[in-house]
């Protein structure tokens, strides 16, 4: 009898210790991916300023019967944990850029000496095709003012391709020596050095050869390496190249992310925040009406291999953990 009691107690103790070592369930306040569900959001760009992440997205506003982009504004969100995002501003394309015909396509923000420069894709009123403009602000959420009163890049400045939408998707990068560069393009990947003012080109427009380059170039640096990630083929995957100089040569490294669910575009931003690396992208995963023209921003982890190459992204519906 004593033996049965002893085994029973040991069994209960074993079950209790096993239960204690089970992982705890995720916090119900972690909403997972997509990170914003009350609006359709696309083409993420992100910066970290004063320990807060600012997320800049295009607002996909296409009605359900429309099978193309309808984007009249950009939205700005902020977060201090990568999970809970608060909408901080909505910026109308035509109100901000008087020379623009509309189309708040992909954009990117960078900070220099206390000013924030927002490079945007829009359609030009007078020069046929897409164009790149720059807005400037004293804070990461605005108010934004057209820095030039005209476009920085127009379609007639790049004539090696006949398409009118090759001047899209600007990404901007400031190197360790303070020199700033603008990369952009569709079909051809362009880049140019910017002047100190950030709103004028210093160099001629050059081109980079990348396998199956579609659009959405994005530059970031980690350690000694520069990374140029971009949308590859169509429907788009994300591929990347590496270099030890911002001027190249760029060495193609392969696919970083597969086609994102239910969206034929796949536009990325990469940031480091509080010791972790994040891959921010969009998919079309909001049920019922989500898709290629009603997209949603998602966030998953990015991991580096010891030699600096990137591990393939594991897209998830759980998303990332809230940063403590
Ligand atoms: O959102 C409009 C366009 O779709 C962007 O400029 C491209 O990067 C693609 O995501």
Automatic annotation (TrEMBL):
Molecular function terms from GO: hydrolase activity, hydrolyzing O-glycosyl compounds
SUPFAM superfamilies per record: Arabinanase/levansucrase/invertase
CDD domains, per the entry: GH43_Xsa43E-like
Enzyme active site: 60, 215
Pfam families per record: Glyco_hydro_43 (PF04616)
Annotated site location: Important for catalytic activity, responsible for pKa modulation of the active site Glu and correct orientation of both the proton donor and substrate: 169
Family as reported in the entry's similarity comment: Belongs to the glycosyl hydrolase 43 family.
Provenance organism: Echinicola pacifica
Superkingdom: Bacteria
Signal peptide per UniProt: 1-19
Protein name: Glycoside hydrolase
Claim: Hydrolase is one of the keywords in the record: yes
One GO biological process term: xylan catabolic process
The keyword Hydrolase is annotated on this UniProt entry: yes
Alphabetized UniProt keyword annotations: Carbohydrate metabolism, Glycosidase, Hydrolase, Polysaccharide degradation, Signal, Xylan degradation
InterPro entries xrefs: Glyco_hydro_43, Glyco_hydro_beta-prop_sf, Glycosyl_Hydrlase_43_Enz
